[in-house]
Amino acid sequence: MINLHEFEIKKMLRLAAEAREKAYAPYSGFRVGACLKTGSGAYYLGCNIENASFTPTNCAERTAMFKAVYEGERDFEAIAVISDGVDYVAPCGVCRQVLAEFCPQDMPVICADRDGNYVVHELREMLPMSFTKKDIDESK
Ligand code: THU
């Protein structure tokens, strides 16, 4: 796994908590913030953005990722996620798939509870046997 200093993790969680303040979650009331770090040391922040029609809801992780990709970023080092929940928040299945598109399989995913306690897992642990661009390329 990419090595992350405790100090760096704390910084990312602080930024993710700031992003959580921007959440638009009038339906669930469950605010989430994400901080995505690039290889060059830039941070992209995201919050969840809900919708009256529910399915268009965008998670914090994808907001951060899509902002970064739009800005031309393709190299990612870590992501931290924090919510209002008492338990560690883990990216949903859709977000794991989006992360797998752009991030290294051994990328650390930092999952925090609302108090900032956290666990770190590699992306590949969270989405084993993932379907990626490689599968399509190899079949050509
Ligand atoms: N949510 C996230 O933003 N990220 C996660 O990792 C889990 C779920 C959001 C989606 C929805 O707005 C709310 O949390 C409740 O599911």
Provide the fold topology:
Elements: H1 6-20, E1 32-38, E2 43-47, H2 60-70, E3 76-83, H3 93-102, E4 108-112, E5 118-122, H4 123-126, H5 133-138
Parallel strand pairs: 3-4
Antiparallel strand pairs: 1-2, 1-3, 4-5
Describe what you observe in this structure.
This protein is of the alpha+beta class. Helices cover 33% and strands 21% of the residues. The protein is built from five helices and five strands; from the N terminus they run H-E-E-H-E-H-E-E-H-H. The protein has a five-stranded mixed sheet. The site of tetrahydrodeoxyuridine (THU) has 15 residues, from helix 2.
Number of helices: 5
Using the alpha-carbon principal axes, give the shape. Answer: globular
The count of β-strands is 5
What amount of the residues lies in strands? 15-25%
User: What's the main sheet like?
Assistant: 5 strands, mixed
Q: What is the spatial order of strands in the main beta sheet?
A: 2-1-3-4-5
Which consecutive residue ranges, at least 5 long each, have pLDDT under 50?
A: none
